[in-house]
């Protein structure tokens, strides 16, 4: 008998209890069945994607530069879409 993670059980029960089709609002907000589907990255993932050293990303964040980020608990996270938008803005000359 395998023991399931309590978080997995909660997520499965939420998905089962809701209608399988996402509402129009949920499709545009990055949520499906009440769960967030946006990809979140941390410093090493952003560094790997952009080729910018982690130390530089940390310095930029401390000085209000670089892509949008948020602290979730003790962790700093970046939305993939925000990193891509920041890169696009740099190419357009808006960064």
What does this structure look like?
There is one protein chain. This protein is of the alpha+beta class. The chain folds into 2 domains: 1-36, no CATH class; 38-95, Multidrug-efflux Transporter Regulator, Chain: A, Domain 2 (Orthogonal Bundle). It has helices at residues 6-17, 24-29, 43-50, 54-62, 80-92; strands at 31-32, 35-36, 40-41, 70-72, 75-79. The protein has a 3-stranded antiparallel β-sheet. The longest helix is centred in the last third of the chain and has 13 residues, at 80-92. It is globular, with a radius of gyration of 17 Å.
Shape: globular
Radius of gyration from the alpha-carbon trace, in angstroms = 17 Å
Give the biggest sheet.
3 strands, antiparallel
Write down the secondary-structure element order.
HHEEEHHEEH
Rounded average pLDDT: 78
For this structure, the CATH topology of the largest domain is Multidrug-efflux Transporter Regulator, Chain: A, Domain 2
In short:
With 95 residues, the protein is of the alpha+beta class.
Which properties best describe this structure?
15% strand; 5 strands; Multidrug-efflux Transporter Regulator, Chain: A, Domain 2; two-stranded antiparallel ribbon; 95 residues
């Amino acid at each position: 008998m395998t023991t399931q993670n309590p978080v997995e059980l909660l997520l499965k029960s939420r998905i089962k209890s809701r209608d399988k089709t996402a509402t129009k609002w949920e499709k545009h907000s990055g949520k499906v069945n009440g769960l967030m589907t946006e990809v979140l990255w941390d410093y090493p993932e952003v560094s790997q994607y952009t080729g910018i050293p982690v130390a530089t990303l940390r310095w930029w964040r401390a000085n209000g530069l670089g892509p949008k980020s948020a602290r979730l608990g003790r962790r700093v996270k970046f939305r993939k879409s925000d990193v891509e938008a920041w890169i696009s803005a740099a190419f357009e000359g808006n960064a």
